[in-house]
C-alpha cells in the first residue's frame, strides 16, 4: 500500500506557558515546483476593554513580543531504522570511525543528529501511548492491549539497543586522538540520549495512570520504569548531576536538560538575517513627496517673480505662504505614502540562511495591521458567526482586530534531501500575551449569595476572565495551485496569563484551486 503524501503545511496550536501562545508550522514542499510559497494570516480579536490599538501597542512592541525559531524538520526514522539503515547517523558514526575519513566535526554532527532523530522516535511513541490510553480508558479491548504491549516493548528494546551501540562506538572513539572539545561533545550527547529515554518513558508511564494496575499493564509500567532507573543509575555512575531529586528543587537538572537540548538540536537551526527592504521603498516615496512639494514652491516663486517685483511686500508674503504650503504638502504626502507603504509592503524581511553552508534557502516577510486597516476575509468571519456572542459583538460591541501576516518563500532546489524526499522546515512562533493583560480587572471577585433555607447572605468566588479569539488562514501556493485551510481557537485569559485554550473549530481544509491572477 502506497504511503499517503505528506501535507505541504502542517500546524500545531498550543499554549506554551502562562504568558506564551505557540504556533508550530511545518513547511514540507513536495518538490514538484522550484519554489513553494506559504502565507499564514493570524487574526486576533481583542475586546476593546483591553486597550490595544496602533498607539498603545505599536508595531515595534508587537515584534518584541514575537519569538521566532526556524530550523530544519527533524528527519523521521523509527528505532528499527536507526539500527538497520546504512543512512542512519548511527551507521555513519560507526563507518566513519572504521574508515577514518570523517572529520571530528562531522562525527559530532552525526552524533547530534542521532540524538534528534532518537528524541523524535521516542516522542512519537509517548504520544501514541497517550492516544491509546485515552481510547482504552472507556474500556480496553484485547486488540488495543496487544498493540500497546507490542509498541511499549519494541520501544524499550529499540532504545536500549541504540544506546548500547552508541556507547560502544563512544568507547572505541576514545582510543583515537581527538580534541577534548570533541570528546566532551560526545559525552554530552550520551547524557542527552539518557535523559531522552527518561523523559518519554516517564511520560508514557504517567499516561498509563488510568489503566488497570494488574496483569500486562503493570508489567509494561515496570519494564519502562526499569529502563528509566537503569539510565538514572548510569548517570549517577558517571557523576552526572542530571538526576531528579524527589525532595529538592531540581534546578541543576532543569538547567542541564535545557542546555543539552539546545546543544544537540542547534545543528538543525537556521538563521534569519534581516533586510530593510521596506525602508528603501519608503525613502523613495518620501523623496517623491519632497519633489512634489518643491515643485509647488518653485512654481509659486516663478509666478511671483513674473507678477510682482522681488522687493515688494506682496512678493515677500507670497514666498512665505508658498514655503508654508510646500512644508504642509511634503508632510501630508509623507503621511499618505507611509499609509500606502504600510498597506502594501511588509514591515520586516529576512533571508533564511543555512549557517553551515551559508546558502539562502528562502525569504520570510512579516506584517502587522490594526483596526480599520484589517479586512477580515468572509470565510474567517463565517467561522466566528457560529457563536451568538460573537455574532452580536461584531455588530454592536466594539473590538480591536489585529492581523499578523507571515509569508515564507522556499527555494526547493536548495533544500537538503533525505531518503523520504525534500527536507522540510519547522517554524515556531511564540507570542507573549503580557501586553494583553495590563488593563485587565482583578482575576477574582466575591459574589453575594443568599441561602434559600434561612436566607443568610454569604459570599462565593467569582472568576473574571477575558476571551480572545484567534483565527488562522493557512495558504500554500505550489505548482499553479492554491490550498487554503482555516482554524479558530479561543484563549481564555485573566490578569495572571493564559488559563486555557479552546479549539472552537478544528482545521478546515479547502480544496486546491488554480492560482488567481494578480489582476
Sum this structure up briefly.
With 519 residues, the protein is an alpha+beta fold.
Describe the structure.
- With 519 residues, the protein is of the alpha+beta class.
- 46% of the residues lie in helices and 27% in strands.
- It has helices at residues 59-64, 79-84, 89-99, 104-136, 142-173, 180-207, 215-237, 251-265, 277-307, 313-344, 378-384, 388-396, 434-437, and strands at 9-17, 20-27, 35-47, 66-72, 271-275, 348-353, 360-370, 399-411, 417-418, 421-422, 425-432, 444-450, 457-463, 466-478, 481-494, 497-509, 513-514.
- Strands 3, 5, 6, 7, 8, 14, 15, 16 and 17 form a nine-stranded antiparallel beta sheet that branches. It has a four-stranded antiparallel beta sheet with strand order 1-2-11-4.
- Helix 3 (89-99) runs parallel beside helix 5 (142-173) and helix 5 packs antiparallel against helix 6 (180-207).
- The longest helix has 33 residues, at 104-136.
- The radius of gyration is 30 Å and the shape is globular.
Which key terms come to mind for this protein?
globular; about 525 residues; four-stranded antiparallel beta sheet; nine-stranded antiparallel beta sheet; alpha+beta; 17 strands; 13 helices
Amino acid at each position: 500500500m502506497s504511503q499517503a503524501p505528506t501535507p505541504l503545511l502542517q500546524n500545531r496550536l498550543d499554549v506554551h506557558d502562562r504568558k506564551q501562545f505557540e504556533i508550530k508550522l511545518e513547511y514540507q514542499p513536495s518538490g514538484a515546483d522550484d519554489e513553494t510559497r506559504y502565507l499564514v494570516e493570524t487574526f486576533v480579536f481583542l475586546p476593546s476593554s483591553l486597550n490595544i490599538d496602533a498607539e498603545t501597542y505599536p508595531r515595534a512592541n508587537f515584534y518584541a513580543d514575537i519569538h521566532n525559531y526556524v530550523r530544519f524538520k527533524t528527519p523521521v526514522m523509527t528505532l528499527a531504522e536507526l539500527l538497520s539503515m546504512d543512512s542512519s547517523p548511527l551507521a555513519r558514526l560507526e563507518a566513519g570511525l572504521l574508515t577514518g575519513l570523517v572529520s571530528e566535526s562531522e562525527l559530532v554532527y552525526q552524533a547530534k543528529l542521532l540524538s534528534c532523530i532518537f528524541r523524535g522516535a521516542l516522542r512519537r511513541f509517548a504520544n501514541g501511548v497517550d492516544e491509546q490510553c485515552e481510547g482504552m480508558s472507556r474500556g480496553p479491548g484485547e486488540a488495543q492491549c496487544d498493540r500497546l504491549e507490542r509498541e511499549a516493548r519494541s520501544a524499550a528494546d529499540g532504545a536500549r539497543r541504540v544506546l548500547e551501540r552508541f556507547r560502544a562506538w563512544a568507547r572505541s572513539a576514545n582510543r583515537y586522538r581527538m580534541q577534548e572539545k570533541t570528546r566532551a561533545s560526545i559525552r554530552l550527547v550520551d547524557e542527552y540520549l539518557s535523559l531522552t529515554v527518561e523523559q518519554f518513558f516517564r511520560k508514557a508511564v504517567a499516561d498509563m495512570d488510568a489503566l488497570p494496575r494488574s496483569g500486562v499493564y503493570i508489567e509494561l509500567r515496570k519494564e519502562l520504569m526499569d529502563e528509566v532507573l537503569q539510565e538514572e543509575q548510569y548517570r549517577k555512575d558517571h557523576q552526572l548531576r542530571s538526576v531528579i531529586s524527589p525532595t529538592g528543587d531540581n534546578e541543576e537538572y532543569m538547567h542541564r536538560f535545557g542546555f543539552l537540548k539546545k546543544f544537540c538540536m542547534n545543528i538543525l537551526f537556521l538563521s534569519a538575517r534581516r533586510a530593510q527592504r521596506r525602508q528603501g521603498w519608503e525613502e523613495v516615496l518620501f523623496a517623491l513627496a519632497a519633489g512634489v512639494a518643491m515643485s509647488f514652491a518653485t512654481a509659486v516663486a516663478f509666478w511671483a517673480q513674473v507678477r510682482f517685483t522681488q522687493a515688494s511686500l506682496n512678493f515677500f508674503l507670497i514666498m512665505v505662504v508658498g514655503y508654508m504650503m510646500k512644508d504642509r504638502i511634503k508632510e501630508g504626502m509623507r503621511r499618505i505614502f507611509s499609509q500606502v507603504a504600510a498597506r502594501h509592503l511588509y514591515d520586516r524581511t529576512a533571508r533564511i540562511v543555512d549557517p553551515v553552508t551559508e546558502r539562502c534557502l528562502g525569504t520570510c516577510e512579516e506584517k502587522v495591521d490594526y483596526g480599520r486597516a484589517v479586512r477580515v476575509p468572509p470565510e474567517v468571519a463565517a467561522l466566528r458567526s457560529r457563536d451568538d456572542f460573537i455574532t452580536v459583538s461584531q455588530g454592536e460591541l466594539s473590538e480591536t482586530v489585529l492581523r499578523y501576516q507571515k509569508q515564507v518563500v522556499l527555494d526547493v532546489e536548495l533544500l537538503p534531501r533525505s531518503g523520504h524526499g525534500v527536507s522540510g522546515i519547522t517554524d515556531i512562533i511564540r507570542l507573549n500575551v503580557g501586553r494583553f493583560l495590563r488593563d485587565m480587572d482583578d482575576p477574582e471577585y466575591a459574589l453575594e449569595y443568599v441561602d434559600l433555607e434561612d436566607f443568610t447572605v454569604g459570599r462565593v468566588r467569582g472568576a473574571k476572565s477575558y476571551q480572545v479569539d484567534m483565527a488562522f488562514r493557512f495558504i500554500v501556493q505550489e505548482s499553479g495551485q492554491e490550498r487554503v485551510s482555516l482554524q479558530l481557537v479561543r484563549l481564555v485569559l485573566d490578569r495572571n496569563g493564559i488559563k486555557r485554550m479552546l479549539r472552537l473549530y478544528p482545521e478546515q481544509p479547502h480544496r486546491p484551486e488554480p492560482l488567481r491572477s494578480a489582476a
